[in-house]
Design goal:
BirA Bifunctional Protein, domain 2; 8 helices; 7-stranded mixed β-sheet; two-stranded antiparallel sheet; alpha+beta
């Protein structure tokens, strides 16, 4: 009798447990990777703990550049008498040097990963964030090819109606260097808010800064013994966190790291 009362009804449907979904940053990572892989780039990854040589010197960043100060960079405490200095990488660019050391041209890579800087956390800054750096090196790569690649990427990520512009800038490892802007995604590039006044996202300019890039400085090739007379290339670096904020209208970068389920459920 007890067996009959306690018998399990195998016909009842099971309880389906929700398994969640990919994090919004992971979604943007994969979308960016897909765009570049489609045009011949390879995804490579590298160590988050680096040496000053790969993080700075081989990228043409001089010894006394402010970014190398411990006010900007996390240096790792090592036992007294240690023969080397280690740090948490401040960008994923070191893998560009490591790749060129091992691989002859042509090189077309993107390097996604976490990076670390001594920034005070606020709505647009975090001491840990994500970055995707890219590098293309081959014979006769021109600024036009670089410009076309960047414009293609932006339109693939944000849509065909997006306009772009390039502004002169400075980075130690590229020359010439540029900042790439896109027409404001929130106001359509008009600079005006929908309810009147100026757009708070672009401050009324109609443009939003996306990322920095440029043609690789020939001095960098000297560290990997590439022939500067025959080779040229371009490099770029962007923050997937910022791309996610712009693409999905997220105001605070901290929301990407707080694991608030109410926020994450907006991006299934």
């Amino acid at each position: 009798a007890a067996l009959a009362r306690e018998r399990i009804d195998l016909s009842l449907p099971g309880v389906i447990r929700p398994v969640g979904s990919r994090h919004i940053i992971r979604q943007v990572f994969e979308e960016i990777e897909r765009i570049f892989v489609h045009i011949g780039f390879t995804v490579v990854e590298g160590p988050e703990i680096e040496t000053p040589y790969y993080n700075f010197e081989a990228l043409n960043i001089p010894e006394f550049h402010p970014v190398r100060d411990d006010m900007d960079t996390f240096y790792i405490d090592l036992p007294k008498g240690a023969q080397e200095t280690l740090l948490l990488r401040t960008h994923t660019s070191p893998m560009q040097i490591r790749t060129m050391e091992k691989q002859k041209p042509p090189v077309r890579i993107i390097v996604p990963g976490k990076v670390y800087r001594r920034d005070n956390p606020d709505a647009t800054h975090s001491f840990m964030f994500h970055q995707i750096e890219g590098l293309a090196v081959d014979t006769d790569i021109t600024f036009c090819e670089f410009k076309g690649t960047m414009e293609y990427f932006v339109r693939e990520l944000f849509g065909p109606s997006i306009r772009t512009r390039f502004r002169p800038s400075y980075f130690p490892f590229t020359e010439p260097s540029v900042e790439l802007d896109a027409s404001c995604i929130f106001c359509g590039g008009s600079g005006a808010a929908s309810g009147g006044g100026t757009c708070s996202k672009c401050k009324g300019t109609g443009w939003i800064e996306l990322f920095g890039a440029g043609m690789v400085d020939p001095a960098v090739y000297g560290f990997v013994k590439y022939d500067t007379a025959k080779l040229s290339g371009f490099a770029f670096g962007m923050g997937p966190d910022r791309m996610a904020m712009l693409k999905y209208g997220i105001d605070d970068i901290q929301a990407l790291f707080q694991n608030d389920v109410r926020f994450l459920r907006q991006f299934p």
